[in-house]
Amino acid sequence: MFEHGAQPIERQKWSRRKRSRGFTLMEVLFAIVILSVGVMGLAMVVPFATQNDYRTRVDTTATFVALRQLEQILAQPPGVVTFTDGSDNPGLNAPIVVNVTDLNTADLVGSGAPLDANGNIDFTVAQGVVAPGYARIYGVAPTPVNPNGNVRVNIGRYDVRWNIYQNANGIKTVTVAAQLSPLPAGANFLPANVRAVQMR
User: Fold this and answer.
1) Core-most of 62, 72, 98, 128, by most CB within 10 Å?
2) What dihedral angle (degrees, nearest 10) is formed by the CA atoms of 158, 47, 188, 118?
């Protein structure tokens, strides 16, 4: 006699075997489709991440180059009109004469590279139009390689421009900007603009 609710032993074994049969062909195919969609999504993200990394390196280097030029300008003693900016890499950057004065303190636009409506350097103007001593091409040389053989900083040439505005009280505003030159086709890199106010 069986107790109430108990199943015969053969039926229990058959029931256990039925439950442990594995996946059906449809379940396997469905899992493969889901996995493929996930892998394809990851594969589409890799080029975007690589492009974003390159853009970040270019922006960072442009900011470094602009800050370098700004520091050179601000380091000059009062009364200096021009100075020679020595090269930190003679093979890449020849020394240039840098103008650090506002030639017309009566106007409100300053001297040097033209500014846009937001007060940033206007790169829609060709560099050849900028007055001499207010623009340069600055080359960034590769630094020593790391153990993997990869260059550690972005290399290239940067278009650097500056504008000097001095008001009637002698307060000088220096705006410097840099961007990769020439820009790759289709690139939409924004110039790195830095600004400082100097009081004499």
Assistant:
1) 62
2) -90
Strand partners, 135: 161
Give φ, ψ of 54 to 5 degrees.
-60, -45
Closest CA to 197 of 169, 178, 182, 175: 175
Report the predicted TM-score, pTM, of the whole model to 2 decimal places.
Answer: 0.72
Structure tokens at 107: 């106007």
Q: How far apart are CA 135 and CA 178, in angstroms?
A: 10
Task: Please return the burial class of 64, using the count of CB atoms within 10 Å of its CB with bins 0-12, 13-18 and 19+.
Answer: middle
**CA dist., res. 47 & res. 72, Å (int):** 38
Convert the pLDDT of each residue in 79-136 to its tens digit. Answer: 899 999 887 777 788 889 999 988 887 888 899 999 999 999 999 999 889 999 999 9
Residue for token digits 């890199």? 189
Residue where the block lists tokens 């050179």? 72
Residue spans per domain, the chain: 41-198
What is the tens place of the pLDDT at every residue in 22-55?
778 888 888 899 988 888 887 777 777 766 777 8
Instruction: Return the structure tokens found at 120.
Output: 């940033």
Judge contact between 168 and 105, C-beta under 8 A.
yes
